[in-house]
Fold this sequence. Notes:
Layout: E1 2-4, H1 6-26, E2 32-33, H2 35-44, E3 55-59, H3 60-69, E4 77-80, E5 93-97, E6 100-104, E7 116-124, H4 129-150, H5 159-171, H6 177-188, E8 198-200, E9 212-213, E10 220-225, E11 228-233, H7 236-244, E12 262-266
Parallel strand pairs: 3-7
Antiparallel strand pairs: 1-12, 2-3, 4-5, 5-7, 6-12, 7-8, 8-9, 10-11
Helix pairs in contact: 4-6
Amino acid sequence: MKELGLSDMKKIQIEILKDVSRYCNENNLMYFLGYGTLLGAVRHKGYIPWDDDIDIIMPRGDYDKFISNFCSDNKKLEVLDVSNEPDYTFPFVKISDNSTILQEDYAINFNRLGVNIDIFPIDGAPVSEDERGRILGKIKFYRNILKVKYVTISSRNNFLIKLIVTLGKVLFYFIDYRNLLKKINTISRGVEFGKNDSAGCLVWNYGAKEIMDKDIFTESIKIEFENSFYNAPKNYDEYLKNLYGDYMTLPPKEKRATHHTFKAYRKV
């Protein structure tokens, strides 16, 4: 196998994004750049300089249709989801290049994962603040268990962190991560997208910050990302402010770092 550099990985990710965008446009599926990818497009017209992944968001109905029907002229691409891969390890979709291998620093790894992009579902949110808090609290509880099961114990961790992680792994040893993924997805699907005035990605990421006006996820504009144009929420300013606050101000230098640890290889 040949190890891929960061620039090689990004080229593959961009080609995947182009394929996904093309398919969605041809089949009238709503999608948007999301999270750091959208922030990078707005602030840098491409990747955030210290970022290394691509994120897309989709209303749940379009998301489900995409999972069931996506096809590409690029035969190397495959949809990875808990609905079609019983050993898959995330409650959201990845579109993966199967001519590559991605090795992440997780205790639980899906061994068929290649260089990929993430696609997150947007679900409806309850009207009641109390009900929202209850649902988000449940999902956070299951996600925290997942994190304990995923995390590896490193020599860089101090004694207390090692102790907490070790005790957590013992406590949750008999809980199958697949059941946790199913619970997260079932809870997140509880309110149909568009039924109420609010929506957001409930399965992952920012918790209460995700919940915002559903209309943000119903209209798109084109925005530049790495010399091509893709869909962004028409009111991307409100979306980014909800998640990041003053998003146009760069973070301190010490925080300009990737949150991923992985290596990628080309199969030969």
